[in-house]
What does this fold into?
Amino acid sequence: MLGAVSFALLGSSAALAQDDAAFRAYLEGLRPQARAMGIRDATLDGVFSTLTPNPRVIQLDQNQPGGGAYSPIPNFEPYRRQHVDAARISRGRAAYAANRARLARIEAETGVPEEIMVAIYGHETNYGSYTGDFDLIRSLATLAWEGRRRSLFEPELLATLKMLDNGVPRSRLVGSWAGATGYPQFLPSVYLRLAKDGDGDGRADIWTSEADALASIANYFVNAGWRRGQPWGIAVSVPAGFNRAAVAARTAPARCPRVFNRHSRWLTMAEWRRLGIVPAAGGWPGDSMLATLLEPDGPGKTAYLLTGNYRVILDYNCSNFYALSVGLLADAVRQ
It folds into this structure.
């Protein structure tokens, strides 16, 4: 891509001028799409003139780790110790206690457990302590123009421009280099679809209002198919000599193969019990509830039976380590 090549020539004024011209031409080419979304030309005029490419975000994007669907995956336990640690649990319990009234109301309305909302908040931004400081519009404009993943970043750039046109202050439009923003780290397109006003002031302020952020997280989960009253999963022990081939998944995953290739096929809790699986603590959920088996640290270590609600957590971030940590943090916060 022109941008990627030219950034390697930062010492060349001609290359910089060429990049700047190409960048501005790209932005101007977005006007028809922006107008079709109802974004005013005055908004575009006001922001396009302020933008320059940011080579740092291209570097960060190109340095993202790869990994094929069957490439080696490290054990979960070191990640768990880092992300479900005493400090995060303690802060989670404090956030849980401070927001009990609104959490209880949101759970009653949506069916999403209070502790799940808190755990997402804790994992995404450590309860609002760090939400990112990249200029979203500049970052997304750079990544869309550079072109390597334009199909991902261009719609998010347009969504951010729509947020600005809707009255979200430019000062709020900061976040991660890849466009996630606010306490829940929503992408701009997700904000437009699912952000909620949780405190009744008429705005969905996911940057400073915990009420809005928690209500928005719950709305995301409802939209992704959360089932009221169903746990995300349970920790279990797998008996020695267990026949894993007999429960292997029979179909290839349509998305996130690196994640879903590690799961067994779906069986009911009653079927898992008959196969000798034993809960690590507590009892069994309902016999007819479906679950898959995941052994994130390999045979002989703690395993998990995971329900459809676990898949909802994966919809938020398609990583087994992330989803397991959210579930475990939620359980620890609720205790």
Q: What stands out?
A: Residues 13-29 form the longest helix (17 residues). Confidence is low (pLDDT under 50) at residues 1-11. The two ends are 52 Å apart (CA to CA). Residues 183 and 210 are 8 Å apart (CA to CA).
